[in-house]
Amino acid sequence: MKSEVIRKTILVANDDGIFATGIKALALALKPLGDVYVVAPEMEQSGVGHGITFRRPLRFKHTESAGFGDIPAYRVDGTPADCVALGIRLLPRPDLVVSGINLGQNLGDDFTHSGTVSAAVEGVHNGIPAIAFSQMFPPNGDKFDFTHGAEYAARVAAMVLEHGLPHRTVLSVNFPHGTPKGVRVTELSDHGFDDNILERDDPSGQKYYWVDGTPHGHGEPFNDLGAVKEGYISVTPVQLEFTAREYMRVLEGVLPALEGRD
Ligand code: MN
User: Fold this and answer.
1) 20 C-alpha to center of ligand 1: Å?
2) How sure is the predictor about 261, in pLDDT bands with cuts at 50, 70 and 90?
């Protein structure tokens, strides 16, 4: 009897765009695990969160020039979530969705801004286990080196392919700069940005604005910010279950009085 090997299918997306170095490192590292497909934005989409394009058409274009070798790669003129929404329907349904490796960390409140994370969340919304990978900016504007990150990403991906993830749970993995000291399971920190709006004049004298931000947050040994700051890989499981159940009970006690009926 011939034993049947079930090939696993992995969809790789990102928010930095199909030509980014991080997605190339990730897709190539995952190749030994199964059939890999790349679907990524044709232009950078960092910070667009979970936007979905539904007021205009989208193009889904095979892109040989992206340099993924024999891994089929497609570019989409939309958001990271669009890429995953199209990829899981136009290509063989994946067993795993991965996103990244983002050029820059996604910690704390970045979770909701991040296109990298949102691509993974789109996988979870469609019932597919998903992991977002991000890597800390190197100091002094140095180049990103994804050697360690890509290698560890493949190990986490293999683990999730084998064991799955709990219902409505996504993994957000952040790699430190340099050789990791180890791995920590972490919670999201209070990292965020104090937005600073810069006002400028365009060539015709009209005002325009840049959203700039100064990062804040408390790194602790048990959170994502503390882990990457101290040189550890941070693995944060995030539950996509937003209902505030305890406060529901409070509202149920308070709201009837607002109905104006006795
Ligand atoms: Mn990005």
Assistant:
1) 9
2) low
